[in-house]
Write a sequence for this structure.
């Protein structure tokens, strides 16, 4: 890995000079800029083609940086910070005046995350400022979980990629509005909802129909994670594999080249049909999901049919990403 101190120092100097750097975290690669430099932050939106009403997560390396960003750290937020940071969680908190509207898209809140990846932490620390960063993909594409994914999307548009290897978690952080007595999960992710509930007693799942006291995550309204291939997502049920095989055969018959995303153990149940393995359990599926969607494009498959999973542990995040990638095509 190219995470020697010189590389970290070089990447940090780009940030301090108002540039943009892609860096790995335990969830996905981020595209970072100095969170206190508006001109630098605006570059991120341009490079990604990201709508300016979709706020960025601000990455920190310690508690002092959280205090610099958040106007207050309420009780539940404190519990979640102590229990899950550094780690794949993002907390939405009321922001201090110093945090600009360029980062927060005009919201009165700021999303704060402390990654656990060692290189990412060392990088943020070397920057000396919090680092605003969305996932380092072109908007709408599957999030990058290797430096190569970033290169494939952003080659020629950014000056530096800090290679941190393959992301250990593989799906983005869980976004939690931690201000209220009952925290609200705005996006499922790397910390399973069950663990958050265990820590704070009770958590609510944000649904668009919910009362409007809680500002939603603006990012949820956009199409996401989509490869070029059409994605079909199967609900998780006992006949799932029969349904998937039938869809596969129908697509193949009309000349679309389909591929099935499935666990290793299911591969043989699909006979000679093309498959891409997502490992043996929900955590493997999460880690390999985005890479599998990109692989399907590289191998010129015209359709991806993804197996459903139970919503236990990281399964909830996998299901959420696949439903979005499928754009509603649920079989
Ligand atoms: O794991 C992650 O969270 C990765 C890595 C790079 O840290 N980052 C990431 O960023 O997934 P992005 O921009 O792809 O997704 C951030 C999500 C968006 O849905 C955005 O709307 C939401 O967080 N968000 C950001 N600030 C917010 C705020 N103040 N209130 C509510 N939602 C917010
Ligand atoms: Mg993203």
């Amino acid at each position: 890995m190219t995470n020697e101190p010189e590389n970290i120092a070089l990447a940090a100097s780009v940030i301090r000079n108002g540039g943009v750097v892609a860096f790995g975290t335990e969830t996905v690669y981020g595209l970072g800029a100095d969170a206190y430099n508006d001109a630098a932050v605006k570059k991120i939106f341009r490079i990604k083609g990201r709508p300016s009403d979709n706020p960025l997560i601000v990455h920190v390396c310690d508690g002092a940086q959280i205090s610099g960003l958040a106007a207050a750290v309420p009780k539940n937020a404190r519990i979640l910070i102590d229990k899950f940071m550094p780690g794949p969680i993002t907390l939405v908190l009321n922001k201090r005046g110093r945090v600009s509207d360029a980062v927060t898209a005009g919201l009165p809140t700021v999303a704060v995350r402390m990654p656990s990846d060692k290189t990412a932490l060392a990088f943020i620390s070397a920057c000396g400022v919090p680092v605003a960063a969305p996932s380092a993909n072109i908007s709408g594409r599957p999030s990058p979980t290797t430096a190569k994914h970033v290169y494939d999307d952003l080659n020629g548009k950014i000056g530096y990629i800090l290679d941190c290897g393959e992301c250990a978690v593989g799906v983005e952080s869980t976004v939690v509005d931690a201000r209220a007595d009952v925290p609200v999960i705005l996006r499922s992710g790397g910390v399973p909802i069950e663990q958050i509930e265990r820590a704070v007693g009770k958590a609510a799942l944000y649904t668009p129909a919910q009362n409007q006291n809680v500002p939603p995550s603006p990012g949820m309204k956009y199409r996401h994670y989509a490869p070029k291939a059409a994605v079909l997502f199967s609900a998780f049920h006992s006949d799932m594999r029969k349904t998937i095989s039938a869809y596969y055969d129908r697509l193949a018959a009309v000349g679309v080249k389909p591929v099935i995303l499935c666990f290793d153990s299911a591969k043989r149940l699909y006979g000679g049909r093309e498959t891409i393995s997502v490992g043996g359990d929900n955590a493997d599926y999460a880690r390999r999901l985005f890479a599998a969607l990109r692989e399907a494009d590289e191998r010129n498959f015209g359709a991806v049919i993804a197996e459903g999973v139970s919503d236990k542990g990281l399964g909830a995040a996998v299901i959420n990403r696949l439903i979005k990638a499928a754009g509603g095509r649920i079989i």
